[in-house]
Amino acid sequence: MRSLATLHDEYALRGRIDDAAPVTSASAVLIDAPVARVWDVLADLRGWEAWSPDFELRALDAVEPGREFRWSQGGTPLRSRFAVVDPGRELSWTGTFLALYRAVDRMVLADEGGRTRVTVEESLDGPLIRLFYGERRLRAGHEARLAALKVHVERSA
């Protein structure tokens, strides 16, 4: 299992997840809105509670590379640190939960003729992770978040 520092420095900061992790997933959605609008919603973590299923923000100073934030997903507390904050292109972070599990999360935006493709990629590692949080569950969470993002952005456009 790679250290959180390695995941942050050698993976997240370099625009990739840990493909060798026991659990990985990637999902995408096409949103009928320009990249700038989608970015504004994604970069506003304080606003995620209004649209993202089971998301609760617990502490956030700023959405900037190297800054930490605390949140929970479905009641599970997470501690994360932003790696890439590239407006209109990528929002990524590394994080831990239950002090044993490590993740790399990437949200990548791409313009497609005035619409925006958002791709979410994540890698998870930790003891017996596949037994209680496998790829199917991770993908379902990503797809639910992406669907909610699409509805939220398109309704508010």
From TrEMBL:
Q: Which domain of life is it from?
A: Bacteria
What is the source species? Actinomadura luteofluorescens
**Know the name of this protein?**
SRPBCC domain-containing protein
Q: What InterPro entries does its record include?
A: Polyketide_cyclase/dehydratase, START-like_dom_sf
